[in-house]
Design brief:
By secondary structure, the protein is an all-beta fold. Helices cover 0% and strands 30% of the residues. The relative contact order is 0.26.
Length: 180
């Protein structure tokens, strides 16, 4: 069965590939017969364990995270396929929270690949040890038209992340010192 949205109102995956969710009766069968190549499970401010994402995490004590950038390849430079990069520092906040920087949540959302996306954050209480980066994919309105699927090929395209760069600095640490 399909997971429900966090508010329990409707199914989480209704209206995929940029289509509008349409009503059907409980007695009517709903068939999803599209040979898609990438799961379209992105929903703003929603989460379920069945959602598809790519995540990279690292830990560096006392790091001052300066910026991050990534390079991506999207077939035919399709404008209907949008990659979301969500950064979380120190595990503060959940990935489905709205991106914000305050004491309860240290989330950033970036949409522009190939550019230096500024973070400039030492972190919560100046510790900034944990850096989590999650990529999700959104298929915008018009990615699939059931009446003319050959004219709307966006639903067949999956992005590829080719490079991720994270800029940071840390204070110098002397692990052992001996005076003679």
């Amino acid at each position: 069965s399909m997971p429900a949205k966090m508010d329990g109102s409707t199914g989480l995956y209704r209206g995929r590939f940029g289509t509008e969710a349409q009503s059907h009766s409980a007695a009517t069968s709903l068939v999803y017969g599209m040979p898609w190549r990438f799961w379209d499970t992105w929903q703003a401010r929603e989460f379920d364990n069945t959602m598809v994402y790519y995540q990279w995490s690292t830990r560096m004590d006392q790091a001052n995270w300066r910026s991050m950038r990534w390079d991506q390849e999207i077939p035919a430079s399709d404008k209907n396929v949008q990659v979301h990069a969500i950064v979380r520092l120190d595990g503060k906040g959940e990935f489905w929270d709205p991106p914000q920087v305050n004491e309860g949540s240290l989330l950033y959302e970036f949409l522009l690949p190939g550019t230096k996306n500024s973070i400039n954050r030492v972190g919560y209480q100046n510790e900034a040890g944990q850096f989590d980066l999650r990529f999700t994919v959104e298929y915008k309105q018009g990615s699939f038209d059931p009446l003319a699927p050959e004219q709307t090929p966006s639903w067949k395209r999956a992005p590829r992340i080719t490079q991720v760069q994270v800029e940071y600095d840390r204070p110098n640490v002397t692990h052992y010192h001996e005076d003679r």
